[in-house]
Amino acid sequence: MTLYEKLADEIEGLIRKNVYREGDKLQSVRQASQQRGISITTVTRAYLLLESRGLVASKPQSGYFVSARAGGAAPRASELGLSHPAATSSPVDVSRLVLSTLRSICANDAVPLGSPYPDPGLFPFQKLNRYAYAAGRDETLLGLKDALPPGHPKLLRQIARRYLEKGMRVDPDEIIITVGATEAMNICLQAVARPGDVIAVESPTFYAMLHAIERMGMKAIEVPTHPEHGIDIAALAAIIASQPVAACMVMPNFQNPLGFLMPDERKRALVELAAKHGIPIIENGVYNELHFGNSHPSTLKSFDRKGLVLHCSSFSKSLTSAYRIGWALPGRYRDEVEKLKFLNTLTTPSLPQLAIAEFLERDGYDYHLRKIRKTYAQQARLMKAMVERFFPPGTKTSTPAGGYLLWVELPPRVDAMRLYRLALERGITVGPGQMFSVSDGYRNFIRLNYSTPWSGEIERAVIAVGKIAAACARRP
Asked: Peptide bond preceding 257: is omega within 30 degrees of 0, i.e. cis?
C-alpha cells in the first residue's frame, strides 16, 4: 500500500467513526503536508482518492469537505447518456486514422494517456521468459505438430480448466489458438459473413472490430449503446427487422472504450435475440479477467445453446502483450475457423504457448490478477476524480467496472483531434473519439488510459490536458 493510500484509508476511518462529519472541512493540503511531514502531492492524491470514493468533495478556493454521500449512499452514476448513432450501414475506413494515431502514441516517450495497451510493468515478464527459455532447450517440445491448429495441447487444457474454474464447461477440442484476439476476431468474422454484408456493432465500438469489418470489405451499422448497460437490444431488434444483418460484434464485459459490465439478464436477452434470427455473435472477451468486483463476469458464450456465439479472448491484456497469444471458441463454426486459421497464418508459435501454459499451471495466475485488478480499480477512481476536477465544466466521464480505460465526453466546442494534436505538442497522448466510430461522431470525446502507475508525471499530464480542453472550449 502506498503512502497516499494509507492516508486516505486513515481519513476514511475517521469519517466512518464520525470524527469527521458531513460538512466538516478537512485540513488544507498544505497543513496536512506540514503536520505529517509528507509531500503536497501525496496529500493531494489521498484527497482525490477520497473524493473518488464519494467521501469528500472539493470546493473551489475553499478546500475539501466531508460529503453527504459519506453516510453510505452510492456514488453518482455515470453522467454519460445512451448514444444515438445513425441507423444506416456504412463502409468502414478508419484504419489510416488509427494507425497514424497509434504511431504517434508509441513514439518519442510521450505520456501514454492515449495508449490502447496495458502498462507492462505489472506483467511477470521475467518468469514467462524463463519458461520460454526452458521450453526452447527441450527439442521434444518444438515439433511443428503442436504449433499447427488448433494449438498446443498443454495450453488448450489450461484454458479449458480456466473456464471450468469460472463455472463454464469448455471442451478443449473446441478451442483454437490464434495470434492474439485480433486474429481470432478476424477469422471468426470471415467464417460467418461475406464482403458487402452488414455487421452490427456497439456505438462507440473498439476500433479493432472496425478493422476486421474494413478488412473484409463489409459494412458496419452502429447500435445505440448505454454507458452502463451495453448495447440497446430493442434498437438492435429494430435494425434486424429493417435490414439483413449478417453478424453482431460486441464486447459485453468492460467494453473498450466505455468500460461497462453488461448485466446478465441483458446478455441472455441478446443471445436469445440472435438465436431467434439465426445471427452469429462475435464476442470480444479480452478484458474479462480485469473486473473490479469480487466475482468473475459471465460471458455471452455461457448463455449460448445453439453454438452461435464465437467467443474470442487473449492473454495480452491480463498476462503479457509481448507473446500475442489468443484463442477462439467458435461454437458451430469451429471447423471453418480452424481451417481459416491454418490458411491465415499456418501456425501459432509453440514457445509462447508453452511459456503461458507453464505459468498458468505453476505460478499463481489468480494472485497475479488480484494485484492488477486492485491497482486498476484504484487508478480508475483517481483518473475519474482528476478529470472531474481539472477538466472544463460540462465534461462527462464513464464509470468503468473493469479494464484500464476511461471514456470522456468534453464540451461540444472541443474538437478531439485538435486536442490530440495540441497535447502531443506537449509530449502527452490521448485517444481521439473519432477512432471509435464509422461516422464522424464522437468529435468531442477522448479515451484515457490509467494502467500506468500513478505518478507526478501522470498527474501533471492529466491537468495539462484539462487546461488544453478548457482553452479549446473557449475557442470560437
From this structure: yes
Domain membership flag for residue 130: yes
**Could you tell me if 21 and 138 lie in one domain?**
no
For the whole model, what pTM was predicted? 0.86
Strand 198-203 with 247-250, pairing:
parallel
Distance CA 108, CA 275 (A): 48
Domain extent, residue 7, equals 3-66
DSSP 54-65: TSEEEETTTEEE
Strand partners, 175: none
Cβ(111)–Cβ(427) under 8 Å?
yes
Task: From 306, 330, 365, give the residue that closes a domain.
Answer: 365
Q: What is the rounded (10 degree) CA torsion for 164, 366, 205, 252?
A: 40
Other beta carbons within 10 angstroms of residue 244's beta carbon come to 10
Strand partners, 295: none
Digits of tens for pLDDT over the chain (476 positions)?
Answer: 688 888 988 999 899 888 898 889 999 988 999 999 998 888 888 888 888 777 888 776 788 889 865 554 444 434 788 898 988 898 998 888 888 888 877 666 889 999 999 999 999 999 999 999 888 887 766 566 677 899 999 999 999 999 999 999 999 999 999 999 999 999 999 999 999 999 999 999 999 999 999 999 999 999 999 999 999 999 999 999 999 999 999 999 999 999 999 999 999 999 999 999 999 999 999 999 999 988 999 999 999 999 999 999 999 999 999 999 999 999 999 999 999 999 999 999 999 999 999 999 998 899 999 999 999 998 998 899 899 889 999 999 999 999 999 999 999 999 999 999 999 999 999 999 999 999 888 999 999 999 999 888 999 999 999 999 999 999 87
C-alpha span between 41 and 55 (Å, rounded): 19
State the distance between the two ends of the chain, measured CA to CA, in whole angstroms.
46
Among residues 371, 296, 292, 290, the alpha carbon closest in space to that of 124 is found at 371
Indicate whether 361 belongs to any domain: yes
DSSP class of residue 256 equals T
Q: Indicate the SS3 state at residue 130.
A: helix
